[in-house]
Fold each of these.
Amino acid sequence: MSFNLLILVSLSYVAFLFLVAFWAERRAHASGARWLRGPFVYTLSLSIYCTAWTFYGAVGYAARSGIEFITIYLGPTLVMVGWWWILRRLVRIGRTQRITSIADLISSRFGKSTSLGIIVTILAVVAATPYIALQLQSVTQSFAVFASEGGATWGQSELRTAAAWVAVGLAIFTVIFGTRSLDANERHSGIVIAVAVEAVVKLFALVAVGVFVVWGLAGSPEAVLAKIDASPISHFETGGGRWAALIFLSAAAFLCLPRMFQVLVVENADERNLQTASWAFPLYLVAVSLFVLPIAVVGLERMPDGANPDLFVLTLPLAEDQNALAVFAFLGGFSSATSMVIVSTIAVATMVSNHIVAPIWLNASRPGASMSGDVRRVIVRARRISIAGILALGYVYFRFSGGGAALAAIGLVSFSGAVQILPVLLGGIFWRGATRVGARLGLFVGFALWLWTLFLPSLGPNAVLSQTVLEQGPYGLQWLRPQALFGMTGLDPLVHGLLWSLALNTMFFFVGSVFSFPRPLERFQGAQFVNVFALSESARAWSGSGANAEDLLIMAQRILGGREAQTLFQRQATAQGKSGYLPDVTPDFIARLERELAGSVGAATAHAMIGQLTEGAAISVEDLIAVADEAAQILEYSNQLEAKSAEQDRTAKALRAANEKLTALSIQKDAFLSQISHELRTPMTSIRSFSEILRDTDMSGDEHRHFAGIIHDEALRLTRLLDDLLDLSVLENGQVTLHKQVGQLTDLLDRAIGASGVLNSKLQIVRDHASEDVTLHTDLDRLVQVFVNVIANAEKYCQADSPELRIAVQYHDGRYSVDFADNGEGIAPEARTMIFEKFARIADEGKAGGAGLGLAICRQIMARLDGEITYLTGQQGAAFRVTMPASETMAQSPALLASQ
Amino acid sequence: MAAKLPPAPVYLARKSYRQRRIRDAARMLPLVGAVLWVMPVMYVAPATSTTGLLIFGIWVVLIIFAAVISSRITLGPNEIDKASLGQDGD
């Protein structure tokens, strides 16, 4: 296998990637190619999590520490599987706020703070540099392997030259495809598709080597399992603490690493992609890690002592003379390294240009000079220079670290640096109380502790920290020893560093947040982030403006580009019903414009630039509260409407009931009219016919008397009927005069029973004479009239075999009540509302002697006497209660007094 | 200062109730996975290969559950999640 051939193969591969990227950009531009933004390309782009550290380093890690390597893939699986918790929220926030990077997210959440953006950016650069160096190292080492296979042994200088070439190549690719558009939210289709292709290549390469090792070298899966248990790596014991800490670390890093944030959130075109990726990406991780242990075990068995286990993936096929497989493996490793470097540099360069260069430029061009200079060109140029700068940093780190340290160690240190963002990130999206002061404190403390306990010691003794400082602490201060802070010894250095840095980071973040007061914009953004699923996008952070639309357009053109800015303004003007390019400068429009700008230059810069033009129109606490009040008023109004409609419902119901009653009454009135004519006609008919008989016939004295008696009776009946009608009409018109007298209730009842003529009937009257000992001062005759009526009704209507009427007297709340309850069938519920109406008659008419006026008259009488008569429910039969005020009584009965 | 929102429904129809429970399952899944994966180091495993197979087995089961659950979650463009405000109706 000639080394030159390898160079040719890798150059062809790179050319192929260029072609694919170009093709994808053109397709995306022409047709929008939906599948480019689909869930599977999204899942594959997430695979940049598996860098060269995975491709080569996982095997090395497994060869050194056994099964522990797998924790690095368990954490991300948990995050993906639990997408509903965090990722969904991050993606929604990223879309509504047009987030360009993780630094932008933090800065935007905490009131578009420039300083936080800078802190996170620096943290990201420092944490990413060793990682990029790691990728350069792995690519050059793999080159060196092939070179030595060809007979040449590479020294330091050859390695450095190769690394420099790789770095330059990557810089060119990234600049070409990563900075075409300024808007970070516009997907980098070329890069995404190249990364997806590389994801497939590295997966297949690793699986191919794995299959070769398992079935080609070991023979069968069972044999591999036996070899694993026989191998020295199975003796490695991971402590529970380190195991859990590593799972946590990888999960947290998956969220916080700038490149992962870039592909997870910024390049995410559709929230629904997460649904597929939630299981597809863990599946990818399973496939990637499935063959790691077998390769490590077989490598340890077959390769000579002292061979670098980090390169087993490559050296194992070469040693077995599988040249094609080795080249494939090389391309896999090359893919892992390049895709990670490309995305990582784009992510970090976006941060550097938006959070460091742009604010500096903005400051330098102040005051009033914001109109001059082409921001767009400045930012794009800054981004290109940053890409080159970051790769250069990685190269420098690679040169000075000597490329000797194990890959896994660098990876974990880099991870734990990025993870320092986690408390602020989670606090920012779940806790409205998190403030800028707290975030700054937490990040600063966490970053410092990470440097001291993890980063500096990782460079090796005597690189920055001397051996003495590591062992004795600075200036002999034992409690400041980097790997035994506050005297905490005996802990794994990684767990130790992670524990201290994250614990103090979180604590300072919390305490700082609790004891500080946020600015209005912070509170506004806090609500926007935490309630991202409930609040609409229409909330605005500007309260009005002195800005003029033309100035805004000039500024927007400088950032978004002429055509895009004009389209935006024109669309807004059309929406406002205006023609031309200049819309009214409303708070809504300013908020929208700011969001557009933020997609290009980050929230902090966009806010500052708009702030320069609008001068002091930023939102205040009063505005926040007013907005809340507005919402509360709308709510109040809708509640009132609801109450009103409920009231209308009630009124309608009452009206419907009244209408039903009226209809029923009208029907009864008609019935009554026919009844009354019938009632009048019957006696009239008999009077007429009997008087005709008297006139025309000769008869005896007895017969004569008999017929005259009938005529007389009928005349009486007529008179009674007319009396009743007259009585009722007098009572209703209030023309009645009451003759108040003093009398005993028991006498009145005696009179009533006598007058109603029930003494000779079947009806039994049951009374309690003791309770009837009440002296009344009222119109006695009228009251007796009521009693007679009720008793007569009972006699008429009670159907029981041995009819019985109970009369009970009670005193309650200053009123006497007299209950008349029979043991018949009672009155049907639907008829109870009608019985007190005039003309009301229930049951069959024939039986009733009267015309249905009795109870109506009773009701009128009781109303005149300040009492009432009601139908009493809940008794066995029909029951009526006659109540009258006790003030009408002269004295209370002793029996009733005793019973109170 | 937060404006009161109209009260969220306390009881849901069968379909939205099922949707809520599926979301609960989606929330639960990573916790279950974390507990299961920390267990292998809690006791001395008989052999590394057994531990490895156990871990991969849990992995596959998690993936299957994740696939089933996430395919049943419906995500609308205007989906408003009142649960994020602590106003969860069931």
Amino acid sequence: MLNNLPKHIVRLLLILGFSLLLALAAKTYLTDPSFYKYGHFRADAIPELAAGEPVYKGSSFCLECHKERQADWSTGTHIAVQCEVCHGVYQGCPENSKAMLPVDTITLCSTCHQAMPARPARQPQVVLAEHPFPDEVKPPCQTCHNPHSPTVVELLAESDTRAKVEPPAYLLTVIAKCLKCHGDKGQGRRKNPPIAGFESAVFIEKMNQFKSGAIGSKTMQRYAKTLTDEDIAELARYYEGFPATLPDPPPE
Amino acid sequence: MENDKRKTQRREFLCTTGKALAGIGVITGGGKLLADSGKENVADMAAKAASLPTSEYDWTQHRWAYGIDATKCIGCLRCVEACKAENDVIGDANHFRTWIERYVYLEGEDHALVDSHADPQNIAASGSGSEYRFDNRYKDEKVSKAFFIPKMCNHCARPACVQVCPVGATFRAEDGTVLIDHDYCIGCRYCVQACPYGARFFIEEEGVSDKCTWCYHRITKGLMPACVDVCPTGTRVFGDLNDASSPVSEFIKNNPVQVLRPESGNAPMCFYVGLDKDVS
């Protein structure tokens, strides 16, 4: 047969046959032995991929030693935030513990809590420029917020820069009565609004409105009628110096 | 005379063609025999699959899936940084296994403005290519609707990337994870092109393609992927579909879920709550 076929056809067929043999040999000897075990891939890759050591340790690992954090972290809203989110990946404690303490808390906390249009409304957010007070030097977040249980707002009196005004002695009983309904820090309680940090001019105007009956509150009218203008001015000055706090949450 | 000549020519032509076809038939048949001998190995798969690839983890017992509740995402980007730390991903902005997109509808606009954490303006705002924050560029605008969408490899049930890989470097494991064998990858980037979600990327230094692996080294040890662990709002859930009480089974049961680009036919295994009309 071969002598009937033209030479160039014979050569083509020989090349074809030889390439086929070469391909089969390559497939048999150059493929990894574990290939085709479970499919068209190298089976040994699976244990290699599964073998890596996890980097993030998880909060239960941290709490094994840091039991002092268990009480406030596990009851606050930051229970959803793992230790390593704020403190960084575990780098070895106590050797590298200093590296794991956040330094710039304003940048850190605003990563989640800076007000942004795309953030869902249920996320607690603040406009950084106005928090805690507009146009003032920003203290680090942990001044007022316990980072492990941030729903509790504790203002340290020493760190508040507003001047504390001493109340006149004769008004102390009056003040006690005010604070009974408006919260011991003037923060407001139930339906009674906060009076802490009120601008004195506004306070005076409001008290006069209560006195005259312009605002219809029988209770406040009763109290306001017992006060003279000087008393109201003194109280206004005193309450203006109160550090502003969050009102008490409504009763359950 | 001419008829005889033609008859001879015709006979010779038919004989030659017949022999040539027979020759091709022999070669093809032989080739098929050899291929069939290869097929016998694959037929042994059942017996061999009984031997698991990993000693302490049984991949036949799990069917992994992922859930994302985009209504909860606050765009803090802790997941992006955690993934990079966990999986040793290159620290620059354009190599990432998971990412967050921000969609903002300004008042009066029909279509959203989209940016991601890798946007140069956001990188400039964060000050570093390896620490990620969204900037606040819309704070003075009138925004009618805005939200974040986390994205990642969807570990599809019918993955296009696996189909196009010429060497079998990427594959779907029996537990549903789509994985990459970096030793076998030749760096052709066909998979990067094929993925309809843009989940795959190329590592120039190593010459291989890479993507999210659902932290295979963590889930085979009973842990969650790093992104799920660090998410502070519960946006990301992961679990075993074979277990009705796993977080992802509960997620799918309790929410109307969607997938990205269902028309691609890839059958993705990342289920979303909160996809908007402009998200694709």
